[in-house]
Amino acid sequence: MEAILFYILAALMIIFAVASVTSRKILRAVIYLLFVLVCIAGLYFLINYNLLAAIQLTVYGGGVIVLFIFSVLLVHHVELELEKTSLKRKIIAGFLSLLGLGITLWTILTYTFKTASTSYSSIEVKDIGFKLLSYEDGGFILPFEVISVLLVAVMIGAIIIAKGKKLKEN
Amino acid sequence: MDFNYTILIPLIPLALFVILGIFSKKIPPSISGWIGSIGLGTTFVLSWYTAYTYFLGGKVDGVYQTFIYKYTWLNFTDNLHIDMGVLIDPISVMMLVVVSTISFMVHLYSRGYMKGDDGYTRFFSYLALFSFSMFGLVLATNLFQMYIFWELVGVSSFLLIGYYYTKPSAVAAAKKAFIVTRFADLGFLIGILLVSYYAGTFDFQEINNLQGSIITSWAATSFMGLSVFTWGLILIYMGGIGKSAMMPFHIWLPDAMEGPTPVSALIHAATMVVAGVYLVARLFPAFYFVEDGFALQIVAYIGAISSLVAAVIAITQTDIKRVLAFSTMSQIGYMMLALGVSKYDGHEGLGFMASMFHLFTHAMFKALLFLAAGSVIHVVHSNYLKDMGGLRKYMPITNITFLIAALSIAGFPGFAGFFSKDEILAAAYENNMLIYVSSVIVAGLTAFYIFRLYFGIFWGKNKEYEHTPHESPWSMTVPMLFLAFMSIAGGYFHFSEYISADKIPFQSHLDIPLAAIATSIGLVGIILAFIFYKKENNLPERFAQSFGVFYKWTYHKFYFDELYLFITKKILFGVVGFSAAWFDKYIVDGTMIGIGNVTVAISNKIKGLQSGKFQDYAMSFIGGSVVIAMVIFYLWIN
Amino acid sequence: MIAGINIYEILSLTSILFFIGVYGFVTRENLITVLLSIELILNAAAVNFVLINTYLYPDLLQGAIFSIFIIALAAAETALAIAIIINLYKLIYSVEVKDTETMKY
Question: Is the CB of B633 less than 8 angstroms away from the CB of A106?
Answer without folding.
Answer: yes
